[in-house]
Design goal:
two-stranded antiparallel ribbon; mainly alpha; Serine Threonine Protein Phosphatase 5, Tetratricopeptide repeat
Amino acid sequence: MYKFLKFTTILSLTTLMMLSCDLDKTPYDSITTENSWQTVSDAVKFENGIYSLFKGINGGNYIYIADYQSDLFNATISFGNRGGDVYSWNFSSSQYDIADVWQGNYTCINNCNNIITNIDKITPSTDADKATLTKIKGEAYLMRAICYHTLVTRFAKDYEPTSASTDLGLPLVLEFNVTAKPSRSTLSETYNQIKSDIADARKSLTVVGAANANYLNVDVIDAFEARVDLYLHNYAEAMTLADKVIAKYPLISSVSDFKSMWLNDSGSEVLFQPYMSVDERVNEMPYYLSYNTGSKAYAPDFVPSKWVLDLYDSNDIRKSAYFLNSKITCTDVSVTDVYMLYKFPGNPALKTTVYQYYNMQKIFRSAESYLIAAEAAYRLGGKDDVALGYLNALKGKRSAPTLTNVTGTALFAEIKNEWIREFVGEGQRLNDLKRWHDGLTRHDTQNSSIIMQCDRCLYAL
């Protein structure tokens, strides 16, 4: 009996010791926040993570869904209802394309918050390490601001100074807390946060920019703040920042170089495009082309409306670079007189098969700065000649006819059309319409025989 009790006692103590050890064990598939912020190498891994997320939310359905909603494109009879809900403005709580924009940007924001909150826990041992940590913190502030601006332009009213303090903005999530459920701030508070993040980014991010940069830098800060100031009605400030970008990033005037920028993702006017390689690529853009090897013809889901094509002069280098005329077969109907959007032809360096459409998303181009400056100058009043100067500078580089003696509402109409000519297919149109407080009506098609016919899809919305 004594031996049995002794054995039982030893077994019980051993079991308790084992249980105690199990309770103290760290999971094999994750680490705590405290243990994940130890070295500069840890911070760089988090930096790579936010860039990977950011790349994912700035292409594919994150941009083409906005254009499907607009008046620039018509759905073809073979589009298979891809993007059909937003195209017909038939929204519901289960509309995943819209939900993706919200969730994707807030996921990136939360990861930026993780960096901003924890990066100062790392003690740098060298000046180089300190510089790296400071840069990463600045990138996180700027990326968070860009995400918030993407969200506020999609999910809130246009900013108007007279009502911004009462108009609803966004839930402001500034700490890494996956369980938080903040209420919506005002539109004024949302934009104040965006401007605050830009200011904090300027304190930490001092990397000098260069064309085709894959990382955020001071020039991107200027380009982005000019964009934000335009929405905030800070027109003089927007012009000043736009001028800085214009002075450094010359526009392309050669048709071959312009086509190469879109095909090969390299051009003098590209400020920033997230890096892609054949092993690190996301957001294929096939729906404007979709070559069918069976029918040996293209079968796009959407094609530009006729009025969009009519906006371009025949000598405009954008017309031949942005649009492709080739045989289209949708179901059993073939046409040869329809132009497709060719802005995302697929970089050969990113392809593993012939018909793939991966391109680096050009999130900031200097062409935007010309249009920001032109619109801001017009909005200031009494500066129509200045606005026309910016507009003609852009037109001239694109071999488009320049304008003379155009003022007032006619000038503003030309500025609006130039936004379309330059940024068609880049998800910009809805933002512009909201900023101008303009409605939209779907326009005539290039060839109605391949277009989906329905009251809500084809004509007025």
